[in-house]
Amino acid sequence: MFIEAEEHYRILAVDPDPALRSRLDLMFNGSEHASLTYRPENLSYMFLGCTTMVEASAAIGRGVKSGQIFQLVFVENNLPDGEGLDLIRQLWLTDADLHVVLSTTSPGPNWEQIVATLGESDQLLILEKPFSDLELRQVVHAALRKWQLSKQSQNVMRYMEQQIEQRTRAIEQANKNLLQAEKLAAVGQLAAGIAHEIATPAQYVGDNLRAIGDFFASITHLLERYRTILSAQADHRQVIDDLERQADLAFILEDAPLAIEQSLEGIAQIVRIVQAMKGFSHSGQSNAGWINVNLALENTLLIARNSYKYVAEVETHFGDVPTIECFPGELTQVFLNIIVNAAQAIEDGKNGGGKIEIRTSAVDDFVEIRIADNGPGIPEPIRDRIFDPFFTTKDFGKGSGQGLHIAYRIVTQQHGGTLSVVSETGQGTEFLIRLNRQLRR
């Protein structure tokens, strides 16, 4: 709990007559000299006395500086070096939480004088002399209780301020994540449109390249026939050879088929990327469907290639796994988050020779997907926290701490599966995803 009860109180009596301090000691500690002779830790009430404003100010200052503060001060209004009201004003400048009992003899200062000097304060009590032991006891208990409640209120306010600050930071982070999610959703929609727009020209560029390849093969065959026929015309052969050299026909015949083949390979890669983007851009859809896990992983690797191609080689060992019922967009998001996380771990480790290995297999009624990397591993003290929201070991601005948390939530809550991690410092990390073949409703 954020409220702690006080077990020891320090009370200062500022009075030219030392009788008040002795009277308090006798009343609360059973001896007039208890506070002067007993160990402070053995007393619930420690009473100290002084006779002047200078001594009182010094005592309060020492208490604040050492951390052994006074909770209550009795101040005689008439002091050898000044008036009690002026002393109280000085003491509150040193310790604003100090509670004060002003003891006066009739006629004492009136209310107007008190307010003019100190302002209105609930930390001040007026006790007119002579006062009985009962009055003294009641005043001490009331003042200390007010001081304790004031401290508790301050602790509560401090605690609430901390909670508000934490909640505010969490809300700000949530808003940033929401904004990022909205941006990603917009990018997803844009990617779907771009993929559709690219698909059509990519298709006819590929068709045209294949046609050009066929045309070139026909031309090459025709040239060979021309050469055969013209070889009998010796008087024209030299002229034809010179023209072929000028046109660099030998190079064209050798290089053109390679250029067409490379262009066809490039356009085929574009088509594969576009198809992968079209599938991946539907992550906002909530409809369940049946997918081939191996194909989904291949598409994800295609999309994520830029994140790992400079830092790691990828090996895939796809088993004979059945199609599974899932939310395709969300599941590919899981694959993407873990693959990108593996690539970043390898890059941050800066060990070179990075490797990401992906395996799939069917085990009983489950499909298992293992994604392993040979990065630096996860330190043992934080392994239990990697799926916590907003937890990240990346530098500020490089990670929101949401990727693995989102993956865990999608696998466990949305699909009823499990997501676990095995890691060894310096050896690497493996994530294991286990999914039911069919969603449980």
Automatic annotation (TrEMBL):
InterPro entries: CheY-like_superfamily, HATPase_C_sf, HATPase_dom, His_kinase_dom, Sig_transdc_His_kin-like_C, Sig_transdc_resp-reg_receiver. It catalyses: ATP + protein L-histidine = ADP + protein N-phospho-L-histidine. Gene3D superfamilies: 1.10.287.130, 3.40.50.2300, Histidine kinase-like ATPase, C-terminal domain. It holds the Pfam family HATPase_c. It comes from the Bacteria. Residues 193-439 form the Histidine kinase domain. Its EC number is 2.7.13.3. Keywords: ATP-binding, Coiled coil, Kinase, Nucleotide-binding, Transferase, Two-component regulatory system. Residues 10-144 form the Response regulatory domain. One of its GO terms (molecular function) is ATP binding. PROSITE patterns: HIS_KIN (PS50109), RESPONSE_REGULATORY (PS50110). Residues 157-184 form a coiled coil. PANTHER family: C4-DICARBOXYLATE TRANSPORT SENSOR PROTEIN DCTB, SENSOR HISTIDINE KINASE. This is histidine kinase.
